[in-house]
Amino acid sequence: MRRIISILMENEPGALSRVVGLFSQRNYNIESLAVAPTEDPTLSRLTLTTEGSDKVIEQITKQLNKLIEVVKLVDLTEGSHVERELMLIKLRATGAQRAEIKRTVDIFRGQIVDVTSTVYTVQLTGDGEKLDAFIQAVGTMGVLEVVRSGVSGIARGEKVLSL
Amino acid sequence: MELLSGAEMLIRSLKDQGVEYIYGYPGGAALHIYDALFRQDDVKHILVRHEQAATHMADGYARATGEPGVVLVTSGPGATNTITGIATASMDSIPMVVLCGQVASHLIGEDAFQETDMIGVSRPIVKHNMTVRHPSEIPQLVKKAFYLAKSGRPGPVVIDIPKDMTAPNGRFEYEYPEKVSMRSYNPAVRGHAGQIRRAVDMMMNARRPVIYAGGGVVLGKASQQLTDLAHELGFPVTNTIMGLGGFPATDEQSLGWLGMHGSYESNMAMHHSDLVLAIGARFDDRVTNATDKFCPGARIVHVDIDPASISKTVQADVPIVGPVDSVLEEMLSLVRESEEQPDQEALGAWWKQIREWGQYRSRYHYEQNGDNIMPQEAIEALYRVTKGDAYVTSDVGQHQMFAAQFYPFDKPNRWINSGGLGTMGFGFPAAMGIKLHMPEQEVVCVTGEGSIQMNIQELSTCKQYHLPVKIINLNNQALGMVKQWQDMNYESRYAHSYMESLPNFEKLFEAYGHVAFTVTRREDLEPVLEKAFAMKDQLVFVDIYVDPYEHVYPMQVAGGSMKDMWLSKTERV
């Protein structure tokens, strides 16, 4: 089952490599990874998505917790949560296609953030499936480049991951 | 406040941490540190002949005392040579602090001379590692390193020290911190009371219980607590090979050790039990055999300081995360307070069954082969000569298994072996580390002619520092364990499991200024050992030519359950 694990860790050099190293060392998969400092500059928030049986996920969270720089972590998929991913996608946009792409972007509530006479750059946020659906919808129209941020997530309601 | 250079702070921090000896080898990036070392007398340095041996010396000391061993090496090859020793310590949860020189900060990343990314290279095999970024943080980092190495589940910690951090011209205020706290690291200080009660309830209702005690009992200094609890309950105890001595091997309730080469009675008892009480053990593959066939009728209580060890390979019914000593104490007081007690009739029947297994195949069983000295009888003679009270280190292979099987350990910290990583070349330097700290104790390394050659250069270190360890070489003129597997699985095709051109050990040891004896006849075995151990001030190597055909038994059948074993070359149960 796909899981979203959200980690609060010391914002120190080398901490990220320990997390990534752990996954390769123990033969776990990382599907996506997003990391940046939090409002407290001594802490980083890292969100990763992975897949595995309950037993494997239990080991992953335990092994992550063992890393000295990991302060706290939560498996967001255990409760209700919000997840988002940001995509920037560059599309060939000429002639009649310009209007068609514009319409599709509107349907998906995306924004065209850069325009040339032949190219649209579209920004889109949503969960992974929505981004996939957009790519599929514009698929015939010439995708030039796709950049996805990886999943970020947060628990719904009062629940917070903080010190 | 005192003003010291980074190098001086490093050495002072070691002194203030209570470190007496460090083991190491100098080189460019570590020279400021070595200069500071030279200008004081508190911390003594032992110059090894290869950095790997420094880590094993520190490791042996740590295993015998529970205190972190300290290693000092230079950057690049000095640092990479410690890797096997660090991995050895890591696999067996041994506290160790490794101080590595590094090229100066401004050179890092430029492929400078003797530059290696030691933080990256060591990352998967350390509990933690860190780089010094400013000389003033050195005392804090040293304190942190010792705290991490020793607390919780112990392990090795590496500090990478760029050369400019120890430069003699910098001067900083020195104060050694009294304690260190980290918001991201809080090992459990006691087990969950409700879980402990559940476990005790299960013990009271068990009919066929086994206590399966690992190295965590030795590391957690909980031998007494384990022994008390086992005696109170009257339960059988089996140790892992890392846990030998954690429960007295000559105690009536001891079944010997378990697993691939464990005793018949241990493995049978485990397989047929209805309650496995795992204390500071980690259900290693060399213990469980195939996990899907492991102890089919047993419920499992698992006590360990490391939550990641619990339910990693075998699912625990009652997980208890906490220090083994305090958890065992709480269990014992609950057992003593309890109005219930285990069903004595069931327990009696269980013991009767276990004794029958023990009679069917004694854990001290082997057969003679003509006039050949059997490796087992060499260990038995060693046991008699040392009165069962030596610190015994071993290398890796058949001799390791024979030593573990035929030298019953009654005290913890006496059996020193690389159980997890299985590092050949470990035993001799480990013995040196112990002898250095405990010159009055008998320290003996049981080895083979393969393993001993993996760190034999340390004979020179022994001469320099006068370390009269004894080395017992079970010489079967082959890499015995490899050969055994080739006999069993590869139709005796001995691919590179023997060595031609073994050195003349007597001349070799003599060349290093030591003594060596050769034993080829059974009647010489014990007298020569007596003579060797009577030479208190000499390193003595006893080269015992043993039967070259002997295998280690029992041996679990690969892919089977715990009870599926070869008991001899022809008997499979």
Short note summarizing the structure:
Chain A has about 160 residues and is α+β, with helices and mostly antiparallel strands. Chain A has four helices and nine strands. Chain B is built from 21 helices and 22 strands.
Question: What report would you give on this structure?
Answer:
The complex is a heterodimer of chains A (163) and B (573). By secondary structure, chain A is α+β, with helices and mostly antiparallel strands. Chain A has helices spanning 15-25, 54-66, 97-107, 128-138, and strands spanning 2-10, 32-37, 43-51, 70-75, 81-92, 111-115, 119-126, 143-148, 152-155. Chain A folds into two domains: 2-79, Alpha-Beta Plaits, CATH 3.30.70; 82-152, Alpha-Beta Plaits (2-Layer Sandwich), CATH 3.30.70. Chain A is built from four helices and nine strands, in the order E-H-E-E-H-E-E-H-E-E-H-E-E. In chain B, 36% of the residues lie in helices and 17% in strands. Chain B has a six-stranded parallel beta sheet with strand order 3-2-4-5-7-6, sandwiched between helices. In chain B, strands 11-10-9-12-13-14 form a six-stranded parallel beta sheet, sandwiched between helices. In chain B, strands 16-15-17-18-20-19 form a six-stranded parallel beta sheet, sandwiched between helices. In chain B, a hairpin with an 8-residue loop joins strand 21 and strand 22 (565-566). In chain B, helix 1 (6-16) runs parallel beside helix 7 and helix 3 runs parallel beside helix 5 (83-91). The A-B interface holds A 9-10, 13-14, 17-18, 21, 25, 55, 58-59, 62-63, 65-66, 68-71, 163 and B 119-120, 123-124, 127-128, 131, 148, 182-185, 306-308, 311-312, 315.
